[in-house]
Amino acid sequence: MSKLTLAIPSKGRLMEQTTDMFGRAGLVVRKAGHARGYRGEIDGLADVDVVYMSSAEIAEALRAGSIHLGITGEDLIRESISDAETRIRFVQKLGFGFADVVVAVPECWIDVTTVADLEDIAFPFRRRHGRWPRVATKYTNMTRRFFATKGFGDYRIIESAGATEGAPAAGTAELIVDITTTGETLKANGLRILDDGVILKSQANLFASNVAAWTPALENLRGAIADQIAHSIPGSVRSK
Amino acid sequence: MAAVSTRSLEELEAQARVLLSVFTNADYETVAPAIIQPADVFLDVVGESLRARTYVFTDPDGAELCLRPDLTVPTCRLHLARYADPGTPARYCYNGAAFRFQPQAADARHPREFRQAGIERFGDRAREEAEAETIAIVIKAIESAGLKDWSIRLGDLGLFSSVLDVAGLSPRWKKRLDDAFLKPLSFREALKTFAVSARSASASVPDALLSSLRRDDRAASEAAVAAYLDEKSIELIGTRALADITAHLIGIAEDREEKPLDAAAVDLIKRYVGVSGPATKAGAIIDKLLNGLGRGSGTALEAYDRRLALLANSGIDLDRVTFSAEFGRTLAYYTGLVFEVHLKAHGPESPIAAGGRYDGLMRAAGAGIDVPAVGAAIHTERLWDAVRGGAQ
C-alpha cells in the first residue's frame, strides 16, 4: 500500500516538545540515515514516512496535500490557508506551543484601547501624516480578516520579516500584529495589547490535509496515530 | 473564466465591440489605461480589504505595484495625467482585463482574471442627469449584446445623510453615524452604544485628566498629557505625536459631554435602514418616515425622485428597478448613487454590471479636490455566459 506521510517540526522548541509528546504516546521516532537527515520512521508503523520540515513548510504542505498529517501551530495554518476549514482537519490539540496572535499599540497611546479607537484615530492620523496608520506583521492574512470582521479598513500593512515588535519604536509602523506568549517582549518594546485585540489563541495541533491522497487503509492508520497521541495528552478528547 | 478557446475569445471580442460601440455612440472616448498600476493609490483608496483581493508585487527596484483590480482608478489616473485641471469634463470608456484573488477559489462566475467593459464620466455637474444616463447606457449596452432579462438594484448613500439631518443630530453625532454606516458589521453595535453614551467609555484615562483638557488651549492640554505619561513612566514612542494623542483625548472628552442619541432618532435610523422594495415606492416610504421634512429643492430625496423620472424618460421600465437602503454600504469609494444590474438566474452575488457615483475618488488618486464622477462597469464574461445560456 502507499504510505502515510507525517511531518514533524525540524527545529526549535516545537521540535523538542513534539519529540517529548511522541515519547509519552509510546511512538518511537527514528531518523533514517545520518542524524542530521530529514526523513524518519516510527517503530512498529512501517507504513508511516516521517519527514522533518519547518513549521511554516508543514502548513504549506498540508495546504497542498503533499503530506497527510503534520504537526504545526494553528497560527500558521490560519495565516497561510484561506480556506482552512475545508482543506484542513483539526485532529488534535496538543497542549503545547501556546501563542496568542494579538494587536498591540504603543503604551503611550492612552487614548486607544480597542479596535474601534483605531478607527477613530485613523483619519486624523492621515490628515496629519499623509497616510493611513501602518500595521507591521507577518500575519498579513489574519490581520486583514480580523480587522474586516471589526469593520476597520483604514490602515496599511507593512510586511515584517522579523523583530516586528521593534517597528513602532523604529518608526517603520504605528502598530503591530504579532504572536506573544508571556507579553514580556511586547512590554519591553513599550507596547500594549488592545482590550479586544486577541486575534487567535494558538497552540500546536495534529492536522490532517483533506486534499492529500487518502485510502481507507491510510485513514485507519491516521485514526490509530491520533488515538495514541490523544491518550498521551492528559484529559484530552480528540477534536474530530 | 478567462477565454478558454480561440473561439470563445473571438466571441468575447465581438461582444466587446458591441458594448464599446454603444459607449462611443454616447460620446465616450475609448481609452486603454495601464494594467500594471502603483499599488499605493489603490490601497489608499480601497483600503486593506480589497488589497486582500489584489495581486500586489514588488519590482526589482522595490516599487510596490499591482495588477489593476478594476479600471476605474486607472482611468482616474489617466485623466489626471492628461489635464492640469482635474475638474475638466471628460467621458471615457474601456474594455480590458482586471484581476482579483478569489478567496473561495476561482470559478466560472468568479474568475481571478476577467474583462470589464465600462464608462467613466468626470466633471459633469448635472448630477442626476449623468447618473440616469449612465444607467441607461449600461442597459442599452447589455441589451445590444443580447440580454433582455435584467433587473436593477439601486442604493443611495446621500439619503442616509439626509435622514441624519432630519433626525436633528449634532454635527458630532452625524459624523460618527455617517462613518459607522459604511461599516454594517459594527453599525448596529455603534447604534446601541450611542444610545447609551457617546462612546463606550473605552479610554483608560482618568476622568481628572480628561476634564482638564481644553480644545482652546492645546499647549496646556499637551502638557497635562505629557505629565500624566511621565507620572506613569510611559515612554512616548512611535510616529504618533503627543499632539495627535492629545487631540484625540480632547475629542473623547467632548464626546462625554454630548447627550446620548435619543430613542426617536435611533428608531428613525433603524427604520430607514430596513427600507427595501420597488424603487417607485421607496421615495414615498422614506418621505413618510421623515414626516415630509426631507423634501425640498437640493435634498437627496428630491434627487432620488428626479433620477427615477429621468430613468423612466430614457425608456427604463421602472417595474424592473428596486431600491435597498442597505445597498452600497460596503463599497468603500461610492459617495451617492450605487446600482447593480442583475439576472434572476445568477443571484445577488454575481451582478452583470455595477456602478455609481464616487466624487471623492479623484482626490484620493491625487487630484487634490473632489471631482463629480459617475461610472459603471460590465462583467463581460458573465454577460457572455448569460447571453449564451439564454440562447440555448
Would you kindly provide a written description of the structure presented here, covering whatever features stand out?
The complex is a heterodimer of chains A (240) and B (392). Chain A is an alpha/beta fold and 240 residues long. Helix content of chain A is 35%, strand content 30%. Chain A has helices spanning 12-24, 55-64, 74-80, 84-87, 115-129, 140-149, 167-170, 184-188, 216-232, and strands spanning 4-9, 29-31, 39-42, 45-53, 69-73, 88-93, 99-106, 134-137, 156-159, 175-180, 191-202, 204-209. In chain A, the strands form two sheets. In chain A, strands 2-3-4-1-5-12-6 form a seven-stranded mixed beta sheet, sandwiched between helices. Chain A has a five-stranded mixed beta sheet with strand order 9-8-10-7-11. The longest helix of chain A is centred in the C-terminal third of the chain and has 17 residues, at 216-232. Chain A is elongated, with a radius of gyration of 20 Å. Chain B has 15 helices and twelve strands. In chain B, a hairpin with a 5-residue loop joins β3 (56-58) and β4 (64-67). The longest helix of chain B is centred in the N-terminal third of the chain and has 20 residues, at 6-25. Chain A binds chain B through residues 82-83, 106-114, 116-117, 119-121, 124-125, 128-129, 131-133, 141, 143-145, 147-157, 168-169, 171, 174, 190, 195, and chain B through 43-44, 47-49, 51-52, 103-105, 179, 183-187, 200, 202-205, 225, 228-229, 234-240, 244-245, 247-249, 251-252, 332.
